[in-house]
């Protein structure tokens, strides 16, 4: 979405890095060691693999292609790369992934991307436009996301932020975040806590404990509140406890870049 | 006892106009060569079923073989959109494409029900999403013990399922390993099945993680080395990531796609012979 | 990360009076040593769950550990009856035994539902039999798509499941192969789990047909070589068919059984040390 | 049940054999080459293994313990012997046996035993006596039989015949044969044809095409109609086309005995 932003170099006393690199590293930091993490391809997979090589060596990576505990030495290009199966603790069929491992709530963190995300963390990856049968843009669809969003103990969303993608209400609810607000997940009978963290190239948003509306709680270095407001399609609330993300360390950056380089 | 046939004969005998056809393979072991053979034989009005209609179905849809797609995720994995799929949905090109859309969990369970001889499957799914509003094959069912309401999806029972596997023996016992996706379920759910394999061997040496389909559960086997390309067959080939990127340039434009079909499919050259390398993509 | 514990500690910490307990293993890999440890620790009022309550449950029932049995086939395979089981059902000795009776298909699906986090499972089963009349956990459900009526059974979710496997590594990843029965489902359906293994090793070498349970899906692992005897562990031991016949002579008589419990179980000797040979049965 | 009968030697010009051997061999002969056969332990397993070593080398043996296409070189002592897994084309979990292979009707012949069998081929392996909660004899129970009887394309029952075991009506219907008569399976929605053959130590019974009641269609050598009537608890009808079983050949007997010997 924000191709330009992704290559914006941020400079200072710290090593230079792009806003995409900041996003990946911020996402990696959010993953606690030892957690079981359901990983989609792209940004989530990058972040999870950085985490496993920095502070979270015992992070358990689960890919919907059927691998439990993959330990890839390069970034996979797809969720079904051979390296994921070859390095896994267990390789299983796809029905088993969803029925025996995801559905009963065995996964701590579901890591999702989004084409559209709304103020309550609902995710659209299906169609852009009001008419499902005649969409403006046909997106890939649901994949594993609806049940990942429902059943993981919590959900982290990693997505580049723009006013086009951060909307007041998604055109299509592919995966439920906090529905129409606080208490909606319970009403729907969704077992997991839903999106507890949205990590973008500008900062971090979290659901307000009272309303479940996403509020800005953290700014990446060099980003100002107004930048984030401008990249948000609703009247973004700012947490009174707004913090500033620590810039990537040289070690984090080198880990990320080595991984990316190895996957070319 | 499964018949050992050529790819052309296997597709010719087992895939018929108007059939419900599932080509499965979850990133790994995607039966691309069989898909292109279906294009070559000019099949029409197919209902295509597949969890992840990636390049293999972009090709079939773009070639006008399909009237309907039943799926859960339609993209070019790791690259972006499927342009032929989008063009069909957004502009009915080359023919209108009806869609029936599920989640992975729903599709996987539909195959499981199909393989199990059950009319439906139950899952914790879809709740709160907009999918049930647009997909008639998602309903709700009440647990007779707890009163809880859960999602129900109908079995998928294709007329024919096609998969790619590493090996078969001469009796037609099929062996695959690595990521095995929903291929076993797709074959068992189907009326007929065709398995393309890297090689037909005298004896299937056991392999860790193997799934074996006995010969009496498979209709036909065709030896098609490289038949998964640009997908891969663990132990035989690597995923051709460059080809997935290259496909974006082919699929993006109708004329480029038409030229590709003419030169690379109808001329009888299979995907195995057409690598990204040759096109100068790497 | 599964804890590596002694058998006594594993049973002591994980099995509590009144629990719903499943010991699984379908002929192969039956956790006999763990069953005898439960007797040794004097557990009471257990609801025992098992598809095939063979010798392992004849021992637990005869020792008075169980108040209820949920099962589908209770016999001494290849030999005949389970005399302690019969005595409990027919004469409430040593304590009354409530039974909840299913078919194998029903029990297997109850474990599948339990492992899947679903409240029930659907199957084509029981129709026309007298089982539904006597088993409250068999009901009927209507397919929302076809209107067909099918059987429904509730999930089994034991408080603790116990299985025997060939190997675990030091992190507690468990590996088993050969006939793997419903052991994976039993462990995944349970709140807590204990796996006895032939050996704990540094590295799990892949084996054809293996099922691997990751360490984070297992509560505790205990190294108990021969812990399946008189059942077996493929690659480690053979089934002791003579012991199954020998058991008939022990189980047949209350006093002989009581003596066996006193001398062979309570005295701390495990089934591994007590072979048919020693008793002069062969 | 009929321990005495099982060791009765039958002699004549043919080699000597017991009535149990005749039963096993008659059962083996009924199995066509290439069929998929769901095999219980005991008599069915013996018969299936004799068949595979005589006229039906491509018989596919399926055991509920999870083996497809077992080719044991000795008679297994249980349905879970290691030899069944080691010689199988595929080894699978028990839920898969029932859900993917049995339930959809992929198995040609289900081979069952019985403690009680009634005139319509219904099978009891649960309790003897009128009161389920206070049985005269508690039997092992259902095992896989109810669904084998329901879903296999046809069912062969192998059982020693006596007036105690061949009853007018079973005390408990564990597995449905022909229910209360012709058309009952269709009414119940049971897909398979049910018991088409009952092979005993005295002869062979088949369901009457009009009524589905089991009638005597074949007598083993040395057995007379009155012997079978005396061993049947209902007024047994005799087929007008009653035939006589061919005595076991020397080759059949030697195969059977070698298998039995090897399993000791």
Overview of the structural elements:
The complex is a heterotetramer, with 2 copies of chain A (264 residues) and 2 copies of chain B (282 residues). By secondary structure, chain A is an alpha/beta fold. Chain A has a single domain (15-259), classed as 3-Layer(aba) Sandwich (Glutaconate Coenzyme A-transferase), CATH 3.40.1080. Chain A is built from 9 helices and 17 strands. A 10-stranded mixed sheet of chain A has the order 6-5-4-3-7-12-14-15-16-17, with helices on both faces. In chain A, helix 2 (19-29) crosses helix 3. With 282 residues, chain B is α/β, with parallel strands linked by helices. Chain B has 2 domains: 3-102 and 156-256, Glutaconate Coenzyme A-transferase (3-Layer(aba) Sandwich); 105-154, no CATH class. Chain B is 29% helix and 23% strand. In chain B, the strands form 2 sheets. In chain B, strands 1, 2, 3, 4, 5, 9, 10, 11, 12 and 13 form a 10-stranded mixed sheet that branches. Chain B has a 3-stranded antiparallel sheet with strand order 6-8-7, covered by helices on one side. In chain B, strand 4 (66-71), helix 4 and strand 5 (98-101) form a beta-alpha-beta unit. The longest helix of chain B has 13 residues, at 254-266. Mean pLDDT of chain B is 94; it is low at 271-282. At the A-B interface, helix 4, helix 5, strand 11, helix 6 and helix 7 of A face helix 4 and helix 5 of B. Chains A, D: InterPro entries: CoA_trans_fam_I, NagB/RpiA_transferase-like. Chains A, D: Its EC number is 2.8.3.12. Chains A, D: This is Glutaconate CoA-transferase subunit B. Chains A, D: Keywords: Transferase. Chains A, D: GO terms for molecular function: glutaconate CoA-transferase activity.
Write the layout of secondary structure elements.
The complex is a heterotetramer, with two copies of chain A (264 residues) and two copies of chain B (282 residues).
Chain A: H1 3-6, E1 9-10, E2 17-18, H2 19-29, E3 36-39, H3 43-53, E4 60-63, E5 67-70, H4 82-86, E6 90-91, H5 94-102, E7 109-112, E8 116-118, E9 123-124, E10 127-128, E11 137-138, H6 145-151, E12 154-158, E13 166-167, H7 184-188, E14 195-199, E15 203-207, E16 214-219, H8 225-230, E17 237-244, H9 250-262
Helix pairs in contact in A: 2-3, 3-9
Chain B: E1 3-5, H1 7-14, E2 20-23, H2 32-40, E3 46-50, H3 55-62, E4 66-71, H4 83-91, E5 98-101, H5 104-115, E6 120-123, H6 131-134, E7 139-142, E8 149-154, E9 160-169, E10 174-176, H7 183-189, E11 192-201, E12 211-213, E13 220-223, H8 241-251, H9 254-266
Parallel strand pairs in B: 1-13, 2-3, 2-9, 3-4, 4-5, 9-11, 11-13
Antiparallel strand pairs in B: 6-8, 7-8, 9-10, 10-12
